[in-house]
Amino acid sequence: MMLSYFQRTKKEAEKTKVESKKEMDNYFAAIRDFERDRISLINGKVKFFQIGAFLCMIVIVIQAVALALMSPLKTAVPVMIRVDNNTGYTDAVSPLSDAKESYDEVVNKYFLSQYVVNYESYDWQTIQSMNDTVDLMSDSKTFSQYKTQITADNSPLNVLKQNNKIKVRVKSVTFLKDDIAQIRFDKAVLNTDGTLSADYSQTSWVATLAFDYKRKIKSEGERLLNPLGFQALSYRVDPEAIK
């Protein structure tokens, strides 16, 4: 009976020992799993911050490149303001090397200037040539207006005749719209030898002109004078106010 008790106690002790060892193994396994999870979490955070730092670096580089590209746009460009001593009119004058006019603007200014010079100038020897040029560069209504003006009793043709000339100097061309411009110019009466006439004062004017490039060119000769088909659709000239 006593032997049976000790054998049973021994077996229970061995069983308890086995169970305790199993519990310890489970405990240490749980600790290992916990540490493994902690390490994975830390590694994940490190990787996240590395990616974030890399993206921030890319953004900084992009901003630096953008600022470098935009720097020329912030360069201050000196502009010279020209003031007309007689009229007080001001306009901006860009040095030729710095001018950024478009091709169309340069072409428009050329034809507008040529039109005004031919319309407003006078020379007995070349009046027919100027008349033909104005005709070629005008629509029918605008040329009819010119024809009436040049043949009037008080026109240069009938007043100055062969004794004097009128010289026109274009000072500026300003666009009110893409197809409407104002041309400022001076007119001076010259003697036949090219000197200023003492009988007439120099005058300043502003021409307002609407235009397009739809004139039909019919011959090679016309194309030489007006290659792009420029035509004035309306023309008005007013004295420039003197301050």
Automatic annotation (TrEMBL):
Membrane spanning residue stretches: 48-70
> Which keywords accompany this UniProt record?
Membrane, Plasmid, Transmembrane, Transmembrane helix
Listed InterPro entries: NTF2-like_dom_sf (IPR032710), VirB8 (IPR007430), VirB8/PtlE (IPR026264)
What's one GO BP annotation on this UniProt entry?
Answer: protein secretion by the type IV secretion system
**Cross-referenced CDD domains:** VirB8 (cd16424)
Topology within the bilayer: Single-pass membrane protein
What name appears for this protein in its UniProt entry? TraG protein
